[in-house]
Inverse folding.
C-alpha cells in the first residue's frame, strides 16, 4: 500500500456574496475531487490547536502528525533547516519578508502595507535586494540568509524571541502599531525602507507596473526545532515535494527526503504536473511508501484577495495534481490511500489565515466508502466526522491502530 497527501494550502474559505453564497472551493472546476467524493471518506479536521496562531507552520506540522503543542518552536527555524542554516541552541531565527509598503511623504510608521510578497518577487531579484540589506544593515550578531521569492531569514546570535506580527495579517493597515518593540529589529526595518525604496531594481519594478519590494518585515521568530524521524515514527519512507522553505524545513527536521521540481515556485503558475509526476515516480519506482505534495498557490491567492485566481488555483490542483496522481498510481497498478485537504482556510474577505476546521477527503483504492456528492467545506461538515486533534488524522490515513476512534 502506498500513501499520499495532497495539501492544497489555504484552499478552504468562507461563502462569498459575489459567488452567490458559495466558497471558492465550491465554484472551482474540480471534476476529479467530485468523482472521488461519493466513494471516499469526508470530514473535518482541526489542524490548528486551540490557543495557537493559525499559520501554515502549526497546521502543516499537524497534517504531518506532529502535535504543534509539543514540537512547534517558531516558523522561521523550520525554514532555516531547509536553507541549511546551522543554528545554535541560543540562536533566534526570524522570517524576513520583502514586502511592499506605500511611499507617501512622512514617517516610516505612517506607511501602509500593500503586499506581503511584493507581487511574488522572483528569487533572483530578491537575492539582489537581500544583498543590499546585508551590506546596509550590517551589525554584529545578525546575519541575513536568502531563501525563496519573498521569504528570507535573519539569524540573531544569542538573541531573544519576540511576538511579531505576520505581514499578511495586516494588509492595508498602517504599520506603526505593528512594528517590533525590540529597538534593534525596529531600527533595521526602518533603515531597510531607506535602502530599498531607492534601489535601482525597485525603480525597474515600478517601470514594469510591479510593486517595489521596499521594506524588510521580521516575524515568525523561534529557536532551533527538534522533530522526531518520520520513518522511525510511522515505519514509512517518505518524501516531501514543495516549493517553499517551510515545508522543506519540516522534511529536513523529520529526516524525510525532498524532491526539488524545476519550475515549482510557490506561485499561481507553478509546475503542478511536475510535482505530481515526481510523486508518482517516487512511489512507483523509487521505493518510497509516502509522498507529501504541498501546493502554495491557493493560499497566496487568498492573501492577495484574488477571487478568480484562487478559483483557478484550486482547479489546477484538481486537474494537474490530483488527476495526474490518480492516473499515475492506477496505471502502475498500485494500491494506495490518498488524503486531500488544506492546512487551514485563507478566506478571501480577510486575506489571511483562520483557524476553523478544514475539509478532508480520504480515498482508498481498495475499499470504497460511502461519501458525499461533492467535496467542499459544506459537504464535509455534513458527515459529522470531526477530528478535534488534527495531528492524529495521518494515523488514520496510514491505518495505524486506534486512530479510527479519535474522531
Amino acid at each position: 500500500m502506498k500513501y499520499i497527501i495532497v495539501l492544497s494550502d489555504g484552499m478552504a474559505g468562507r461563502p462569498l456574496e459575489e459567488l452567490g453564497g458559495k466558497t471558492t472551493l465550491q465554484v472551482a472546476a474540480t471534476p476529479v475531487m467530485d468523482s472521488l467524493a461519493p466513494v471516499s471518506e469526508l470530514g473535518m479536521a482541526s489542524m490548528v490547536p486551540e490557543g495557537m496562531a493559525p499559520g501554515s507552520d502549526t497546521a502543516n506540522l499537524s497534517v504531518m502528525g506532529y502535535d504543534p503543542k509539543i514540537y512547534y518552536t517558531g516558523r522561521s527555524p523550520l525554514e532555516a533547516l531547509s536553507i541549511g542554516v546551522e543554528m545554535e541552541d541560543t540562536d533566534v531565527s526570524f522570517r524576513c519578508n520583502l514586502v511592499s509598503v506605500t511611499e507617501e511623504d512622512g514617517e516610516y510608521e505612517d506607511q501602509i502595507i500593500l503586499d506581503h510578497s511584493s507581487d511574488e518577487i522572483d528569487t533572483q531579484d530578491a537575492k539582489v535586494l537581500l544583498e543590499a540589506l546585508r551590506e546596509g544593515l550590517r551589525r554584529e550578531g545578525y546575519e541575513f540568509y536568502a531563501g525563496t521569492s519573498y521569504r528570507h531569514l535573519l539569524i540573531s546570535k544569542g538573541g531573544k524571541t519576540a511576538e511579531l506580527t505576520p505581514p499578511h495579517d495586516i494588509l492595508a493597515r498602517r504599520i506603526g502599531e505593528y512594528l517590533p518593540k525590540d529597538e534593534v529589529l525596529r531600527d533595521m526595518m526602518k533603515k531597510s525602507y531607506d535602502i530599498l525604496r531607492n534601489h535601482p531594481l525597485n525603480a525597474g519594478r515600478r517601470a514594469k507596473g510591479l510593486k517595489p519590494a521596499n521594506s524588510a518585515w521580521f516575524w515568525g521568530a523561534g529557536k532551533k526545532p527538534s522533530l522526531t524521524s518520520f520513518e522511525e515514527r510511522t515505519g514509512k519512507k517518505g518524501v516531501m515535494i514543495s516549493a517553499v522553505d517551510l515545508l522543506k524545513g519540516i522534511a529536513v527536521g523529520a529526516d524525510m527526503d525532498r524532491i526539488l521540481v524545476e519550475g515549482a515556485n510557490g506561485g499561481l503558475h507553478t509546475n503542478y504536473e511536475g510535482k505530481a509526476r515526481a510523486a508518482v515516480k517516487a512511489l512507483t519506482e523509487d521505493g518510497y511508501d509516502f509522498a507529501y505534495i504541498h501546493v502554495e498557490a491557493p493560499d497566496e491567492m487568498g492573501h492577495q484577495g484574488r477571487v478568480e485566481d484562487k478559483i483557478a488555483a484550486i482547479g489546477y490542483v484538481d486537474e494537474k495534481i490530483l488527476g495526474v496522481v490518480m492516473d499515475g498510481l492506477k496505471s502502475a497498478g498500485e494500491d494506495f490511500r490518498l488524503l486531500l485537504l488544506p492546512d487551514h482556510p485563507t478566506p478571501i474577505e480577510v486575506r489571511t489565515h483562520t483557524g476553523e476546521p478544514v475539509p478532508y477527503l480520504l480515498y482508498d483504492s481498495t475499499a470504497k466508502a460511502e461519501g458525499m456528492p461533492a467535496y467542499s467545506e459544506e459537504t464535509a461538515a455534513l458527515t459529522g466526522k470531526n477530528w478535534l486533534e488534527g495531528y492524529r488524522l495521518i494515523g488514520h490515513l496510514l491505518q495505524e491502530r486506534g486512530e479510527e476512534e479519535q474522531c
